[in-house]
Specification:
By secondary structure, this protein is mostly helical. The protein has 16 helices and no strands. The protein starts with a helix and ends in a 15-residue tail after the last helix.
């Protein structure tokens, strides 16, 4: 990995500081992956320990997505106007503060407020990081750089599950309490804050990536039809993913009795497996083409969810999660390259912002509906509904961009 870090494929004669910029973005991505993993392991368990039911947990999980839905497009347009560097600086130093608020409160209204704030701030990362990386490499090398970014986010970042589990276990020993009680789980939440601040330290050294500014009369118009075809399937895919992803830890805990330390170890292994697979994504994209690879990897997540949900034994269910996470990890860099190649360069932050909108809809509606179904009928119907939503998204993606065995959109020929 160190050798790959030194040989990042991002030389651009118009961007002399691109390599420096990409390294800092990748460093922050690693810290973002660690914090997402710790938070994903601990937060729902923390809320459950505080006495909240699964329906409320689903609502809280939806809050950050709802605020992101409201803020994503304005933030995306702002990023295209002022550049992505200021947005990344804000999210780096403010996001840990919203996490601190979540860690130190147990009242429902305050949890909702901090979750809403967290969504707005976190959106700035998703809107800024991918366009910064896209500007730091040639189009023919973009999938490789995105694959490295995804490896750091979901692969190396999954070490946060192990770290979070060990922090919670240490808190349980020090406090003399169960690892499922509030005190030790709050230690895990505070670990999110510490790691987040450490990751933000190099961000002030981030340099501007020069951008070619076209006169307004020469800028490409927004293709509304293309945007709808890109965003509609993605909303269904994220809605299906949101119905499942945030509840995997709670599902394995309640169905099979896994403890936080064991769960953290498994989720770390899952992340490392996914991180290893993501490094294969450029080869798959070279072989199949970016569009075909994006569709195939999204489709692979559906049977993985079915295995996770319907397997009668713990080992098989865990295998389903490994597969689900693997397809998700491999699909991210290919799907990002697919999105970046589909619009003009000056619209990249805008499309990132709009993808944040579909993510917000999916990860607000998905968890909220899933939590309500779980409360009334259990995990199985909720997860199956998520698999159905993902299947519909895959079919639409195929219909819009590859039906009849050829690309249905000439704008994407350069990406394949």
């Amino acid at each position: 990995m160190a050798e790959g870090w030194r040989r990042l494929p991002m030389t651009d004669p118009l961007s002399p500081h691109a390599r420096h910029t990409a390294r800092i973005v990748l460093w922050y991505t690693l810290s973002k992956g660690l914090t997402l993993a710790i938070f994903g392991l601990v937060f729902n368990l923390y809320l459950y320990a505080e006495g909240y039911d699964r329906q409320f947990i689903g609502i809280i999980n939806a809050m950050s997505a709802i605020s992101s839905l409201i803020a994503a497009v304005p933030i995306g347009l702002l990023g295209d106007r002022i550049g992505q560097r200021p947005l990344l600086l804000i999210t780096g130093f403010v996001n840990p503060l919203t996490m601190l608020g979540l860690a130190l409160t147990n009242t429902a209204p305050v949890l909702i407020i901090f979750s809403l704030a967290n969504g707005v701030i976190a959106t700035m990362y998703w809107v800024s990081a991918i366009p910064l990386l896209a500007a730091s490499t040639r189009p023919d090398r973009r999938v490789r750089l995105f694959a490295l970014n995804s490896f750091l986010l979901w692969g190396a970042g999954s070490l946060g599950y192990l770290l979070g589990g060990q922090v919670v276990a240490a808190g349980a020993r020090v406090l003399g309490e169960s690892s499922r009680s509030v005190g030790p789980l709050r230690w895990g939440m505070l670990a999110v804050v510490v790691v987040g601040f450490l990751g933000a330290i190099p961000l002030p050294l981030l340099r501007h990536v020069p951008r070619a500014r076209k006169p307004k009369s020469e800028r490409a118009p927004y293709d509304v039809r293309l945007y709808l075809r890109l965003l509609g399937p993605d909303m269904l895919l994220t809605c299906g993913g949101g119905s499942v992803a945030g509840f995997v830890g709670l599902y394995l805990t309640l169905r099979f009795g896994m403890r936080p330390a064991s769960l953290g170890t498994f989720l770390t292994i899952s992340g490392l497996v996914g991180g290893g697979l993501v490094l294969l994504a450029p080869r798959v994209a070279d072989k199949l083409g970016t569009t075909r690879a994006a569709i195939a990897m999204q489709a692979g997540g559906v049977p993985a969810i079915l295995l996770l949900t319907l397997a009668p034994v713990q080992a098989a269910s865990m295998a389903g999660e490994l597969l689900r996470n693997g397809f998700r990890s491999m699909g991210d860099p290919v799907y990002n390259a697919f999105a970046m190649a589909s619009v003009p360069a000056e619209q990249r932050a805008t499309i990132s912002g709009l993808y944040a909108v579909t993510w917000s809809i999916g990860f607000s509606l998905g968890p909220a509906v899933s939590g309500a179904i779980q409360q009334r009928a259990g995990f199985t119907p909720a997860f199956l509904a998520g698999a159905c939503s993902m299947s519909a998204g895959v079919l639409l993606l195929w219909w819009f961009f590859q039906r009849g065995g050829r690309l249905a959109n000439p704008h994407l020929l350069s990406a394949n």
